[in-house]
From TrEMBL:
It comes from the Bacteria. PANTHER family: LIPOPOLYSACCHARIDE 1,2-N-ACETYLGLUCOSAMINETRANSFERASE-RELATED (PTHR30160:SF1), TETRAACYLDISACCHARIDE 4'-KINASE-RELATED (PTHR30160). One of its GO terms (cellular component) is cytosol. This is Glycosyltransferase family 9 protein. It comes from Luteibaculum oceani.
Length: 326
């Protein structure tokens, strides 16, 4: 039985996508002991997964102190294989010093020289991130596997928490916030979207820091049945509510991947980024909406920016928001 550690300590969305790698491992080999290393704050996503032996945690706030406290413990665990999904140096160093019999990671990692197997990672050709990540398993399996969809396990505790909200006959969920300005559908477009759904119960969703945005949307709409849930639900509870919604409207951000990992209905708005980067929804019935105008400046970056470099933000402002029927 191989003892395996998957390393993905990036943002929430990246951790959710790493669940695809977990599922791909399990589909190909049942006789494994599977461990996962994530950034502190993301561990709750995997607490219900029956096939993950242990979720290891790296505290980014304590960076190297946390890292060098973690490495000896990982070495003692004596892993057979370590798959480093992260392409940055900190986790490359951990992988190098992990003591695992076989170390696999992407060639772009600064520590790739010390990996036993180095895999190419190419963004922009339309390949989805879950397929790029699945390539890491090729040296272990002896063949390149097909990526399984991301998957999160929602428990009874999460379903019970959202039961009151989910009892509404019909409702939609809006996730209006993003860390990056140019990945966030403009405020006035969210108001327009709300106005196009007068007969639906609407929940505005997000983190505690998104509450003000939700309050501002509610204060500027005439909608009679809208509620701000920002900060009231954790990630798995939010995912539980998403599974019951008629539609979830999201930016190119973590809630998009929550929808993919729970097979929830989703409409994703892509402003400055493009689906061809490989971070779009994975479910076949998902809807992607982007500007119909050919803009020479789009995409302006892989992760979005704090402001529009051109000053006009046409990639967001020219998006046509839908109704449930469109």
């Amino acid at each position: 039985m191989d003892k395996i550690l998957i390393v993905q300590t990036a943002f929430i969305g990246d951790a959710i996508l790493a669940s695809s790698l977990v599922q791909t491992v399990l589909r190909n080999r049942k006789d494994v002991e599977l461990h996962l290393l994530v950034r502190k704050g993301n561990e709750g996503l995997f607490k219900n997964h029956p096939n993950i032996k242990k979720v290891w945690i790296w505290d980014k706030a304590k960076k190297y102190k946390s890292l060098f406290g973690l490495i000896p413990t990982i070495r003692k665990a004596k892993f057979d294989w370590i798959f480093c999904v992260q392409r940055f140096g900190t986790m490359g160093l951990l992988t190098t010093l992990s003591g695992a019999k076989k170390k696999v990671g992407f060639r772009k990692n600064p520590w790739a020289l010390f990996f036993d197997f180095k895999i190419d990672h190419q963004i922009g050709d339309g390949t989805h991130e879950i397929s790029r990540n699945a390539m890491l398993l090729t040296p272990w399996l002896g063949t390149q596997p097909t990526a399984e969809p991301p998957h999160l396990v929602i428990g009874e505790k999460e379903l019970n928490k959202v039961r009151t909200y989910a009892d509404e006959k019909e409702f939609i969920c809006l996730f209006p916030a993003s860390v990056w300005f140019t990945k966030q559908l403009p405020f006035e477009k969210w108001l327009e979207l709300i106005a196009k759904h007068p007969d639906q119960k609407i929940y505005i969703m997000g983190a505690p820091g998104d509450k003000l945005l939700g309050d501002n949307l509610i204060s500027q709409t005439q909608h009679k049945n809208i509620e701000n849930l920002c900060g009231k639900l954790n990630l798995l509870e939010s995912a539980a509510l998403m599974t019951k919604a008629r539609m979830n409207y999201v930016n190119d951000s973590a809630p998009l991947h929550l929808a993919s990992a729970t097979q929830s209905k989703v409409t994703a708005f892509f402003c400055s980024t493009i689906p061809q980067f490989g971070f779009g929804p994975t479910q076949p019935d998902a809807k992607i909406i982007e500007t119909k105008t050919e803009l020479k400046c789009r995409p302006c970056g892989l992760h979005g920016k704090k402001s529009c470099p051109e000053g006009h933000f046409k990639c967001g402002r020219e998006i046509e928001v839908p109704t449930l029927k469109s």
